[in-house]
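Could you help me review a protein record that somebody else here produced? My question to you is simply how this chain folds and whether the tokens agree. Thanks in advance; the entry in question is below:
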Amino acid sequence: MVKLEDVAAKILVALATLFTLFPLYWLIITSFKTRLEVIGGIYFLPKSINLYNYYRPLFEDVYGAYLRNSFILSSLEILICLPPAILAAYAFSRLKFKADNHFLFWFLTNRMAPPAAFLIPYWTMYTFLGLFDTIQGLLIINSIGNLPFAIWVLKGFIDAVPRDVEEAAYIDGYTFWQMLRRILLPMLKPAIAVSALFVFIFTWNEMLFASLLTTSPAAMPLTGGLLHYVSQIWVNWSEIAALSLIAMVPVLAAIYFLQKHIATALTFGAVR
């Protein structure tokens, strides 16, 4: 006999799934519609498959350069943030020095502050230093937010690693760098993968500084370029939807390929 509670639970799950996936479905079908279909009424299926919405922005406009800049920024951000974050996280986890907790809290406050509060000072400083509209400027400003987060995440994982492992390595004659490379880093692979994933996502999705501190295709990433579709007289919803889907693909792919490490990282340290 089917219980009423089970039926109600299945209905709620189905409604929640529909509520979650419907915006994505609407984004997909909008990306295939023509401009007239978008403004002509509500259609749950496009009348035709219009792939020109994907082709024109990337190959006939500057959005291919914006997409390239997003890949460059997100990849370089991982290379810039993770090495110092690993060393800093190890220092905060294993070493005791004066005001260590205060330093760690100060690092975290850089992530807590609203980015819009620093927009005018950054714009003034970047204009003076010649960093306005440059890849280097965006790398610096993204690192200010990503580095504290990576340190905080990695410190929690290093705290879960028993000190006996390191002491055994030192007894076997390992130097610090040998212990770090051969013992600690292999144990921290899930944590490093998760940190790299979040750094990539945060950099890829950043829009405020990307749109206001860059103006040319030489430096502007895709998130900043999407705002160019919005004007006082027209909004090209079809191409916005197509580019939004393109922007989602790298993040979804990264999550898919790193899901094993994510699952391991979520349970890391739970069982000794």
User: Anything to note?
Assistant: The mean pLDDT is 86. The domain at 60-266 is CATH 1.10.3720.10 (MetI-like fold). The chain has 14 helices and no strands.
